[in-house]
Amino acid sequence: MRILSDDVANHAGKTITISGWIHKKRLLGGLNFINIRDRRGLTQVLVEDKKEVEKLRGLQIGTVLNVTGEVFADERAPGGAEIHEAKLEVITPVIDAPPVEIDKPLDHKPDNLDTLFEYRPIGLRNLQEAAILKIQAVVKDAVRKELQANDFIEFNSPKLLPGATEGGAEVFKLDYFGKEATLAQSAQFYKQILVGVFERAFEINPTYRAELSATTRHMTEFMHIDAEAGFVTFDELMEIMSGVVNAAVEAAWATYEPELKRWNATKPKLPKVFPQITMAEIHEKFSKATGTNTVGEKDLRPEEEKWICEWAKKNLDTDALFVTEWPASEAKFYHKLDDKKPEFALRCDLLFRGVEISTGSMRENDYNVLLEQLKIIGADIEHPGFKYYLMAFKYGLPPHGGFGMGLERLTQKIIGLNNVKEASAFPRDINRLAP
RNA sequence: GGGCUCGUGGUGUAGAGGCCUAACAUGCCUCCCUGUCACGGAGGAGAUCGCCGGUUCGAAUCCGGUCGGGCCCGCCA
């Protein structure tokens, strides 16, 4: 029966068999140490028999094998135990040396990201690379559980759509049996429709943006946490968003603290509900502090996002905050304007460690007002992209709001990675479609 | 789409007109080594310096073009 690496120490004095990949060889002559990697971690194997060592001649890191031997508790061994008098049985020999070294930290310098992604299929076997994906899996799971705990029902919306409707970002077009289809930029319309069904709904699925953006925070395909809730107030929406980020951070640190520390990550300071700062306030503070005048601008510059996050860290002891009071003139047709201050949309951007990881807003739920707002942008309300969306409103949607959050950006900022792509197993950007 | 940058053995770097017959680290191969954990030691193979053209007695090095990266802006998660 196969024993897994984290269970080896429990079998001291017994003969066991482990299976996995050669992760590292340290051949000292008489004493030969081999680290075997399996899904739980590494096991140190001590091989003294020259015949057994000879079996490894010409075989590279990555070779798959079974190792049978007796377990010895030994403080000198990593994990406190190792396998002695090992018999090796090669299952899958590897002849060619891997192009990147997987037993030591891989280079994440911006200049070398291309190499990192080029050799991803084997680079991911590096324990630190794999740790990113494991942390992300826990983050995703925590987000799901947090939303479920708040009565959100998970669903899946289609990614093949009849046309570009949401506006804003560029959309991918593709041939659909002779007709033009597009790839979903978000689950926006569907999650709103689902408010009429579940009241609270969410999904975590890939979405697509055809932006010609080559920055450290853009991919053309990313995992989108899309949530929508009926009968919520703007403040309640921000509480939910804060809760999601808090849950993700807590779960990541509770599960993978050693891995996070290996990435030199520090645990973010996060209040239960993140503070709000209006865009005008940010412009004012930034302009005063830096001498660059942004007062009156209708969006935040990336440098302002970084700056206000540093300011909030120092002055409010928080790594996250909400930007509120977005100019109504820049609002999307589905945004709800503030009744008390109609010059603003009820929108909140969640900045986390210098980057926008989420945008939330209250939505216009009045069918007739929505039609008016669609008219302004010149939308064809009979287009199938709008028709079914509007159907939900015509037959009753309550006041509601929701948010979209980038899973990779969230992971990136929890770990402290420089580029979102580093938080993706197989990132897609404007010039990378493979692996 | 605009701007700025960078392409040198498998990988990461040094070299910035002649000392380059291209250096170093790591990986790989051979040998030595009984407690390694970035093991150590000795030796070896491996690069027409992204590509094309130009300047020059001479180009990895200067110039032009081209291809491929990276970073920033716009836009966004």
Characterise this structure.
With 435 residues, the chain is an alpha+beta fold. It has helices at residues 50-54, 113-118, 120-123, 127-149, 188-198, 234-262, 279-290, 302-316, 367-376, 384-394, 407-415; strands at residues 15-27, 32-38, 41-47, 64-73, 81-92, 153-154, 160-161, 173-176, 179-183, 200-208, 221-230, 276-278, 320-324, 326-327, 344-345, 347-352, 355-363, 400-406. The chain has an eight-stranded mixed β-sheet with strand order 6-10-11-18-17-16-13-12, sandwiched between helices. Strands 1-2-3-5-4 form a five-stranded mixed beta barrel. The mean pLDDT is 94. The structure holds one RNA strand of 77 nucleotides.
Structure at a glance:
The chain is of the alpha+beta class. The model has no long low-confidence stretch (mean pLDDT 94). β2 (32-38) and β3 form a beta hairpin.
Question: Biggest β-sheet, characterized?
Answer: 8 strands, mixed
Instruction: Compute the separation of the termini in Å.
Output: 35 Å
Strand content: 25-35%
Shape: elongated
The computed structural class is alpha+beta
Task: Report mean pLDDT, rounded to a whole number.
Answer: 94
Number of strands: 18
Helix percentage: 25-40%
Series of secondary-structure elements, N-terminal to C-terminal: EEEHEEHHHEEEEHEEHEHHEEEEEHHEH
Determine the number of helices (DSSP H or I, runs of at least 4 residues). Answer: 11
- Report Rg: 26 Å
Ranges where pLDDT stays below 50 over 5 or more residues in a row are none
Side-by-side strand order of the widest sheet? 6-10-11-18-17-16-13-12
